[in-house]
Amino acid sequence: MTMLPPEVARVFISEDGIRRRVHALAAEIDATYAGDVPTLVSVLKGSLYFLADLTRALRCRHRLDFMAITAYGSSQAHTGSVRLLKDLDEEIAGRPVLLVDDVIDTGLTVAYLTRLLRARQPSSFRICTLLDKRVRRISENLPISFVGFEAPDVFLVGYGLDYRQTLLNLPYIGVLRQELINA
Ligand code: 5GP
Ligand code: MG
Question: Residue 173 half-sphere exposure, CB side, CA atoms within 13 Å?
Fold first, then answer.
């Protein structure tokens, strides 16, 4: 039995469940980019753990690049206005780009990044997300090609997802206790 931190109500996806799904996703991505060299673009910092496991599970040759952003206002009720804190190091024009994200909730953040990255004319643009909270989606028509897990409307922590900057290092994905959400 896993000893849960007091803030965590229950395990949503176990460490083993994550590992198996990440390997299956890597196989899907390998099949999609056969013979190509995609640039995996990751959004710091939530995707860090997912990306580290995904990149090692991939067999296809690929590059990594990073962006850092911050949402204006609270992350619980944001408007989709995002400030870029760090841009990519490399040009992506003419290259296949795969945006790797931790969780797509309203989709507003990823919609902003999609516009930004597509304007640079990559040869293709797709999104891979570990978690998809489809029930909360506001932005339509996002090119989400790879989804690890569908998630309900709960606040998740662990495997890169933080609660007030901590709990991100849990090896599993847990559900935050409901009473903490607006506390
Ligand atoms: P969106 O723009 O899709 O509404 O917001 C996505 C971002 O909100 C994620 O990248 C993440 O930073 C944050 N987020 C959404 N749901 C959760 C969650 O359940 N737990 C944590 N820790 N962050 C979340
Ligand atoms: Mg994110």
Answer: 25
List, for residues 88-107, the tens digit of each pLDDT value: 999 999 999 999 999 999 99
- Does ligand 1 have an atom closer than 6 angstroms to the CB of 106? yes
Domain membership of residue 39 as a residue range: 15-72+80-151
Q: What spacing in Å lies between the alpha carbon of 103 and ligand 1's midpoint? A: 5
> Do the domain assignments include residue 177?
no
Look at residue 91 and tell me if it is in a domain: yes
Q: Which of 102, 114, 127 most suits a substitution to test ligand 1, by most atoms within 8 Å of the C-beta? A: 102
Rounded distance between C-alpha atoms, residue 131 and residue 148, angstroms: 6
Number of domains in the chain: 1
CATH number of the structural domain spanning residue 99? 3.40.50.2020
pTM across the whole model: 0.94
For 37, 39, 76, 91, 113, the CA distances from 95, given in Å and listed in that order, are 8, 7, 34, 9, 16
Is residue 75 within 6 Å of ligand 1 at its C-beta? yes
Ligand 1 atom at minimum distance from 108 CA: 2
